[in-house]
Design brief:
Elements (H helix, E strand, L loop, with lengths): L1 H24 L6 H20 L14 H25 L2 H30 L15 H31 L3 H17 L1 H11 L7 H47 L1 H10 L18 H22 L16 H18 L20 H18 L2
Helix pairs in contact: 1-2, 1-8, 2-3, 2-8, 3-4, 3-5, 4-5, 5-6, 5-7, 6-8, 7-8, 8-10, 9-10, 9-12, 11-12
Length: about 375
């Protein structure tokens, strides 16, 4: 399960890495934010890929090896790239360059310090993942504290920046993506909490093996959330377009009962012979607009041709919903048209016509409600 978790996480990272690398290769090399994002995904992918075959690398110094150090270095590199990405996104280009340079110089001390401390740790016994007495391996304890502290500070900074700039963003998918990335950074904080406990709480009854899988799983889940969050501005608009297309097609189909009733009474409202709903797939936007217009034309034809009592007022005491009252009036108008032989007096020729809105989406929503009510009443 551990290897499967890392394989899936690594696959997600490399897919995200490829999706951001392709635009860079197509000519967007001057976009440093895209470079930082691509590098962040690559570093995450390296961390998770190296975590899969740990037994293949051999063991150099007990349970903790230079292999483990390399994995932790990739984690630090990921955090660095994420911080640079946020700086590049939220500051003008000249200021961002200065801030990125300062952040890189500051963060470069972390891997350098970790390397020196680990060298010293290997000279004083075999490094271990946990300690019965932390004082037995002071250099390794210092190494882990350096790594975990940098991890916590970096993730807290990323989470806070994501939450702050999410409130400022006007783009909905950038806002959602930053919030998801903030959640991912918060989830990942479970990992250093467990590792700090491995270092300092073993003498008090803490069992590292019992919590190791939980800590590493949270780290993997957090990184996957980061992938989803950082890439949301790339795939989010496409998802929105798909959902909007599906909603339009569903509305188009739900308008059929009302449109069919009006078309049977007034075939001239349609410019083309009616076909199945699948015919609208070629140009759904056009066909949906056309269907709404034809329904409204049918309403106008019914106004001129039907002899009815005035429609119910909005405050009618019957308690019937407005859409159902509208559907009932249309059904009565169509039935009255079939029974009528003499043309009605112009003053009493009142046909139901709903609240036509200037907003097309609102108009579609209203007509869908009426059409569904009509279909239920005439089954």
């Amino acid at each position: 399960m551990t290897h499967l978790r890392y394989v899936l996480g690594s696959l997600a990272c490399w897919i995200a890495f490829t999706s951001t690398l392709v635009p860079l290769l197509r000519g967007y090399r001057r976009d440093p934010a895209l470079v930082a994002m691509c590098a962040a995904f690559g570093c995450q992918g390296m961390y998770l890929a190296l975590s899969v075959p740990s037994r293949w690398t051999g063991s150099l110094f007990g349970q903790v090896t230079w292999y483990n150090v390399s994995v932790q270095m990739w984690i630090i590199a990921t955090i660095t790239c994420q911080q640079l990405l946020l700086i590049l996104w939220t500051h003008p280009r000249p200021e961002a360059r200065i801030r990125c340079r300062r952040r890189l110089i500051t963060l470069a001390f972390v891997p350098a310090t970790m390397t020196v401390l680990y060298f010293l740790a290997t000279r004083y016994g075999h490094p271990r993942n946990y300690f019965e007495r932390p004082g037995d391996q002071p250099f390794l304890v210092a190494y882990l504290v350096t790594f975990l502290s940098a991890f916590v500070v970096g993730k807290v900074a990323v989470a806070r920046a994501c939450r702050f700039y999410a409130r400022l963003s006007e783009d909905p998918w950038v806002r959602r993506g930053l919030r998801i990335a903030a959640c991912g950074a918060a989830v990942e904080l479970v990992y250093p909490t467990g590792r700090f406990a491995d270092v300092f709480l073993v003498p008090y009854g803490w069992h590292p093996a019992r919590w190791a899988n939980v800590s590493r799983t949270d780290l993997t889940v957090g990184m996957v959330l980061n992938i989803v969050g950082w890439t949301a501005p790339l795939w989010g608009p496409r998802l929105t377009a798909i959902l909007e297309w599906h909603a339009d097609y569903r509305s188009y189909r739900r308008l059929r009962p009302l449109w069919s009733a009006l078309y049977r009474a007034y075939p001239e409202i349609s410019l083309e012979p009616p076909g199945g709903d699948l015919t609208a797939l070629s140009d759904l936007t056009f066909h949906l607009h056309r269907r709404v217009i034809e329904i409204r034309d049918g309403y106008l034809a019914l106004r001129k041709d039907a002899a009815l009592a005035p429609p119910f007022a909005a405050t009618d005491s019957s308690g019937q919903p407005e859409a159902e009252r509208e559907a009932a009036l249309i059904a009565a108008a169509l039935a009255g048209r079939q029974r009528r032989h003499d043309p009605p007096d112009a003053d009493t020729a009142i046909a139901p016509i709903g609240p036509e809105s200037q907003d097309f989406a609102d108009d579609v929503a209203w007509l869908v409600r009426v059409s569904q009510a009509y279909a239920r009443a005439n089954r």
